[in-house]
Amino acid sequence: MIGRRLFWRLSRIAYYKARRELRSNDIGSNGEADLQRRAAAQHAKRTPGAGFVAIDVGANLGEWTLCMLDAARGAGIRASIHSFEPVPMVHDELLRRVAASPDADAVRCVPKCVGSEPGTARMNVCAGLAGSHSLVRKSEGRDHVDVIDVPVITIADYCNENGIESIDLLKVDAEGFDFEVILGALPLLRAGKVSILQFEYNLCWIDGRHFLKDVFDLAHELGFVVGKLLPTAIEIYPHWHAELERFIEGNYALGRREALEAAGGVVGSFDASNTYAAD
Predict the structure, then answer these.
(1) What would the pLDDT profile of 73-104 be if each residue is shown by its tens digit?
(2) Per the count of CB atoms within 10 A, which of 101, 201, 259, 267 is most buried?
(3) CB within 8 A of 83, min separation 6: which ones?
(4) Quick check: pTM over 0.85?
(5) Do 154 and 115 form a contact (C-beta atoms < 8 A)?
């Protein structure tokens, strides 16, 4: 049994390495910060002087928001960031951390959830500020603290109510509720008003009863492509493949092929052996 477990572990390491799956989901090394820098640089080149609009769904303690401010500052552009965090104790800490930034006036913190339709939802709250609070996955044992009611709005409605005409980068990290957030942004996606939509995919999608294939089907309808964020690139998949449906944690991007390629995207394909490589 020891031999089998060891072989399994070694094979798993090799499998993850070949697939370029990340061993850490740190924003500085998982491709998120790289995408922010590239998107900001492209914006500065394409529309110098115009403001950069970013939306952070599932802002938590503000790591992505603050990193986006750094990327905008580095590109020499003005940023406007709307950060959604509905859990009260976490939202309070988000406000505190944003207030400490020299660019705090560029951020609006919104104490709401984002979904496919407006209303109210039940949020499963975990212990600690950095817990994985979720609308679809219940925390277990000592991690579970409470269930609270939270207001829900769609991205499309929020933009309409606040006069936001377009979004340069929309980030979604909603612990299994991500596809619902994407559905709520559909009017904007169809109108070409979102340049790149970044979302997290992981085991929580099982609780949300959605697949990565759902995003690919949507991308096909919209004329978009889907890619996985790597540390310094985006691995673009023109089509869905069953090998992708592993619920392994990672960040993906949805958008027009030219937008993803401009942000470091490289197109590849699967062969008859069900293995992927860049073309």
Answers:
(1) 999 999 999 999 999 999 999 999 999 999 99
(2) 201
(3) 55, 56, 59, 62, 65, 94, 98, 107, 108, 109, 110
(4) yes
(5) yes
